[in-house]
Write a sequence for this structure.
């Protein structure tokens, strides 16, 4: 079974600040990490590989230094890393990114499963996974909290819902995005780290994946960021207690006082 | 202080540190309270290849020496000495095979130890054989193609949790210590069972248990080394393992110092953080001085042992005594710096103080270590 895991290098959320003057992310000096949800997607892929046999390919789009997350993934059990990197990809929104990833996936060997994190912690859109599935014409499901059964033909999973979970069966190949509840990622192994250090990272350019120049990067991105700003702090909150009747009385009194 | 580690050593430290921070520290208080063996954490360590550090490369290991084990154990002990002890006991249990085992025995056991598929334990101590290891009563008698073992081992770390046991037994009781041999007993061997599980003051996540050998029959080829050479192998095993115990003291003392300094910076009394008071500063300074001196001695002893010297007992014993006495002192001082809070279970230092005590006792009490050092001095100056 060949599993592709899409990962993204993101600034460590613990360190992220907004520059108060420009209202943009202050990225300088902030450590770059593998998107935490993607760590869980990778762990699930490695666990399925250990059970079923096969291989795991990690895929990322980013600048050359993004290869660090591919090496980290190899240290954690992935077999190979592929970096999609080209100046022409810069400024891509989720539409252009999913197109680019889809073109890259089509240049790789055939696969049985694509796993992604639910969303990246920098953009928080949760659109790239489903977008990629759509581009590739794959069945997909998001917010997977458990893999129940895997066979060469299909996968049975649990999708996290607000009030429980759905059990879904998807024919393979398919794409899944995962939540953190799905597993506990392992610590990178010593032998994995040694392998990662020596591993050759395959790099794909816009030409390598046969990308249409109008569909990638800024040119291929219909979303334009007009303004970035810190949300207004929320007003004071009060929590009423007592019986329902008492709480309603308190609420009505409070509303009247503010009219 | 920079100890100029090699790239591989740094990788080992980083990996052990990740295990400690991500897997051990979040669970240590619960494991301590519930007296619970850290099976899942040891499995995580196995996945991270930590068990392969001390196994030679030809058997699937990384071929590290005493120094590499010491570096890993120090990091693990920073999280929990109980967990680190469980890990260290697997190394201790397999050292006899590495030192004196046949090629077939190494092929059979070492790859499983390296991958963490099976864990080991070391069975020497008995009710009447502690510091005086020659007092053991367990016997092994050859009956055709099988050895028959009888006796009870006491306080065996990883007892009931490991699959492979190195058992010291008398093959010629009339010869005393010179009549001892080492055998591999496996979990599930006929006549082999587990007895009382101890309820301990510290290192409560580690399993300490009785091993019962009642007409335990094992194949003839489970004898490790030549018959009657058991005690020589035991002494070599302990020479190699003692710096590991010393490094548990280093990691533990580092953890205690970290807690004490962080607390002293935050705790305000008489209008300022207590680290501003010289009385507190001096306690912290003495903790740091003793810790760094201990660390330097342990690293030096480990490197000495890795150079395969003719005699390693003195260096091995010296670092064990110094580092573990230091750990007892430093953890006690950490409780003092935290005052009443230090005595409460909400803070980790009371556990550290409880965990420290065993380091002065197991793998040869610190009094026995001083005997060894004294005897070596006597020889050197003769």
């Amino acid at each position: 079974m060949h599993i592709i895991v899409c990962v993204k290098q993101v600034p460590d959320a613990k360190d992220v600040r907004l520059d108060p003057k420009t209202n943009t992310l202050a990225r300088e000096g902030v450590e770059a990490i593998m998107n935490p949800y993607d760590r869980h997607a990778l762990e699930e892929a490695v666990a399925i590989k250990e059970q079923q046999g096969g291989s795991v390919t990690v895929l990322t789009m980013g600048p050359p230094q993004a290869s660090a997350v591919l090496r980290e993934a190899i240290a954690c059990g992935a077999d190979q890393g592929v970096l999609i990197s080209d100046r022409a990809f810069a400024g891509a929104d989720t539409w252009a990114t999913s197109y680019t990833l889809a073109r890259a996936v089509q240049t790789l060997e055939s696969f049985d499963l694509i796993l992604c994190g639910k969303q990246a912690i920098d953009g928080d859109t949760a659109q790239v996974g489903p977008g990629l599935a759509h581009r590739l014409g794959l069945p997909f499901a998001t917010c997977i909290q458990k893999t129940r059964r895997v066979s060469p033909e299909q996968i049975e999973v649990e999708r996290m819902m607000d009030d429980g979970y759905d059990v879904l069966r998807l024919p393979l190949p398919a794409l899944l995005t995962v939540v953190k509840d799905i597993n506990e990622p392992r610590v990178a192994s010593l032998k994995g780290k040694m392998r990662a250090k020596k591993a050759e990272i395959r790099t794909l350019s816009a030409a390598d994946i046969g990308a249409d120049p109008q569909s990638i990067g800024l040119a291929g991105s219909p979303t334009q960021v007009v303004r970035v700003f810190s949300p207004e702090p929320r007003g004071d909150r009060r929590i009423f207690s007592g019986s329902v009747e008492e709480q309603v009385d308190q609420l009505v009194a409070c509303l009247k006082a503010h009219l | 202080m920079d100890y100029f580690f090699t790239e591989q050593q740094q990788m080992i430290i980083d990996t052990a540190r990740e295990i400690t921070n991500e897997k051990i520290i979040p669970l240590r208080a619960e494991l301590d309270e519930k007296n619970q063996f850290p099976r899942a954490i040891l499995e995580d360590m196995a996945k991270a290849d930590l068990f392969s550090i001390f196994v030679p490369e030809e058997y699937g290991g990384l071929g590290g020496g005493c120094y590499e084990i010491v570096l890993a154990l120090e990091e693990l002990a920073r999280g929990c000495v109980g967990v680190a002890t469980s890990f260290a006991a697997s190394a201790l249990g397999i050292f006899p095979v590495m030192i004196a085992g046949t090629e077939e025995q190494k092929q059979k056991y070492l790859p499983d130890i390296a991958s963490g598929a099976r864990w080991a334990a070391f069975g020497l101590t008995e009710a009447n054989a502690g510091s005086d290891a020659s007092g053991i009563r367990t016997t092994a008698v050859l009956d055709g193609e099988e050895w028959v073992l009888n006796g009870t081992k006491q306080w065996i770390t990883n007892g009931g949790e490991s699959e492979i046991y190195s058992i010291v037994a008398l093959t010629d009781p009339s010869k005393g210590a010179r009549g001892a041999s080492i055998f591999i007993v496996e979990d599930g061997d006929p006549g082999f069972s587990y007895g009382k599980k101890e309820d301990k003051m510290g290192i409560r996540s580690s399993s300490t248990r009785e091993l019962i050998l009642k007409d335990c029959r094992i194949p003839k080829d489970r004898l490790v080394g030549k018959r009657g050479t058991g005690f020589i192998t035991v002494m070599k095993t302990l020479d190699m393992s003692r710096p590991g115990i010393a490094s548990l003291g280093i990691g533990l003392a580092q953890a205690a110092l970290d807690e004490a300094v962080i607390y002293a910076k935050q705790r305000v009394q008489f209008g300022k953080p207590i680290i501003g008071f010289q009385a507190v500063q001096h306690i912290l300074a003495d903790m740091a001085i003793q810790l760094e001196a201990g660390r330097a001695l342990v690293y030096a002893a480990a490197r000495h042992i890795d150079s395969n010297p003719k005699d390693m007992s003195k260096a091995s014993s010296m670092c064990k005594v110094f580092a573990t006495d230091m750990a007892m002192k430093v953890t006690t001082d950490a409780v003092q710096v935290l005052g009443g809070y230090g005595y409460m279970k909400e803070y980790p230092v009371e556990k550290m103080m409880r965990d420290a005590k065993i380091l002065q006792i197991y793998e040869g009490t610190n009094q026995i270590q001083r005997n060894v050092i004294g005897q070596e001095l006597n020889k050197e100056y003769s």
The mean pLDDT of chain A is 92. Helices of chain A lie at 36-52, 67-75, 94-107, 128-136, 190-198, 244-257. Chain A touches chain B at residues 186-194 (CB under 8 Å). The first helix of chain A runs from residue 36 to 52.
